[in-house]
Every structure is written in C-alpha cells, then in structure tokens.
C-alpha cells in the first residue's frame, strides 16, 4: 500500500514522496525575471522536504501574465536565473517543476496587495487582454479581444518555446495550466467560449486548443520527463464545464501521453458558489483517477499530515499538492514525517534539530 512517503516514479523521474508544492504566484518579478525571492521561496520548500516543487504560473508571453509582476519564460534571458533555481531545488532532493500559463481574459491585473484590480489597456503597466470570445470575466471589466486563428497559432508557439526553455533551464516537470479561468480553461468552458469556428461549440472543438498545445509541446519536451495538466474539474456553475467533461478530457489526455491530472476547480465564473471545506476538491481527483486510470493530484484545503496521508493510502489520488499550508510551514514534509512515524532524510545542515 502506498502512503504519503512512498516514492513515485513517472517516466525517468523519481519523486521521493507524494508531497508537492502547488503553484503559487509571487507577483515579485520585473519583466518576467526570477530573482532571489524565487530562489529562496522555492528553494526553502525543496530544503523542507517536498518531493516536487512547482513554480508559480509562469507566463509564456508578456500578455499572458496575470499581473505585470508575474514570473515569465518568454525569452532566453530569463533562463539564467531559472537555471540556478532548478539546480538548487534538485540539489536538495526535490524535483523542479514549472507551471506554464497564459492568463487570457484574466490578465492585466494589479497584484493582490496593490488591490488586484484590472489595469486598463491604455494605463501604465496595462495591456489589451485576449480570450476565445469577447466575454469579460465580470461585466465591470473591459471586454477581451477575441483571438484570431493566427493569434491562436502564436499562443501555441509560445507554449512550445516556453516548454523548450523550461527543459533547457533544468526543470524536469512541466504542468500546463488549464484551470482557474485562464486562457486554456476559457476555451474549455462553454461559458467563456462562444466561438463558432473549430475551436468552439462542441466538446471536441472546445478541447482542441489544449490538445494542439499538448501535441506541439510534446515535440520539444523530453519524452522521459513527466508532463502534467492542471484542470478545473468543474465550473461549479449551471451550463459550465462539468466533472463528466473533466473525466472525458482526462481520458483523452491519458491516451495522448499526459502523465498526471492535477485536479483543481473553479475560477472561470465570478460568484460561483463553491462548497469550501477540508479536501473539498479531492473527490474530483478520485473520480478522474477511478474513471480513467490516469494518475491524479489532489489539491485544495489539504492541511494536515493525516489528511494528506489518507488521500494517498485510500487511493483517492497519487500526489497531494499543498499551497497555503506550505506558506505557513515550508517544513511541512518533515513535520508530517514526524507525525506519521516515517523516516525521512533531513539536510545535513539541519540534522541536529531532527
Ligand atoms: C498565493 C497563491 C498563489 C496562487 N497562484 C497559483 C498559480 O500560480 N497557479 C495555480 O494553478 N494556482 C495558484 N494558486 C492556487 C493553489 O495552487 C491551490 O490550488 C489553492 O490555493 C488551493 O490549495 P490550498 O488550500 O492548499 O492553498 C495560488 C494560491 C495562492 C494561495
């Protein structure tokens, strides 16, 4: 039986345990560059014993950023600092992963501690947002511009270039961000995708953008490294993307060689009623795993060692991703090991505290 501290091997990559640092925007970059903040933030959680450390949503193009302060990987100059971070994470026994993202209609916002509001295209630091259809996230925000077929092709190319760079920087895992109402999710959901061309309408058409990104990314991403996709398994809204859609999509992604589905929810519909509570999204990781056989990751209000362990032991998911608990406690894996009676290696520098 597997538990939280059982290793997991995907392709040529071994994770020492089932605990991942979930992607978390830091809004601390200038012009997309990683800096000492990212090194220390991600590095501490590798030192703290996580099996997988995933960067925040890393923008594949400047206009794909949620805020002007987001991390990016749209030019080769970004790689110097990213290489240092990936190498540090790996040197401390964790697998370095990168989430690749385009924010679509949710781009061009101020960072949360500056109010988090939309920045108008003509304002300083703002830009014109794009989306599958000219439907704003909330009515108060300007309408995004509908992507043309040529622009879709360009975005796909940006994901490809970003994936090539991620490998060059030393990341061993990429996660395509197809959740939380960002560009790929906007194509998936009928609530944000009103297109009448072959990217809109039927389920097959709405998933096409993701599949085209995936197929093209696979031509540059090393075949022996894992490729993950984060989805929102439901829009929690009438007429939106559903858990059955998530299962159908995951089965197709599995056939196409995706290794693990990271099952989040929501983010595409303002004001959706989400039944928040401990492990409230685990059911979706379980459903996708049981109905398709693909590996899944569970995320969302997983905060205690016992809870995290139970998700793995009971076979609901293969990996747990923690976000806010890792902000409170970078050493969560060490504390969890103590609680659960597992023997794990501490950094030599810290052994006297074990
Ligand atoms: C500060 C912060 C930044 C986040 N940024 C991202 C992100 O870049 N990409 C993403 O997929 N999710 C992001 N999330 C969502 C988390 O990855 C996670 O799915 C969510 O917080 C639920 O997990 P938790 O209850 O363990 O925090 C962010 C969450 C927080 C708290």
From TrEMBL:
User: NADH:flavin oxidoreductase/NADH oxidase N-terminal domain: which residues?
Assistant: 3-340
* Enzyme class, spelled out: oxidoreductase
- Record lineage: Bacteria, Pseudomonadati, Bacteroidota, Cytophagia, Cytophagales
Q: Gene that codes for this?
A: namA
Check the record and name the CDD domains matching this protein.
Answer: OYE_YqiM_FMN
- Name the SUPFAM superfamilies for this protein: FMN-linked oxidoreductases
Signal peptide residue numbers: none
Q: Name one GO molecular function term.
A: FMN binding
User: Pfam families, alphabetically?
Assistant: Oxidored_FMN
Protein name, please?
Answer: NADPH dehydrogenase NamA
User: Which Enzyme Commission numbers does its entry carry?
Assistant: 1.6.99.1
Q: Which cofactor does it need?
A: FMN
InterPro entries per UniProt: Aldolase_TIM, OxRdtase_FMN_N, YqjM-like
Q: Which UniProt keywords apply?
A: Flavoprotein, FMN, NADP, Oxidoreductase
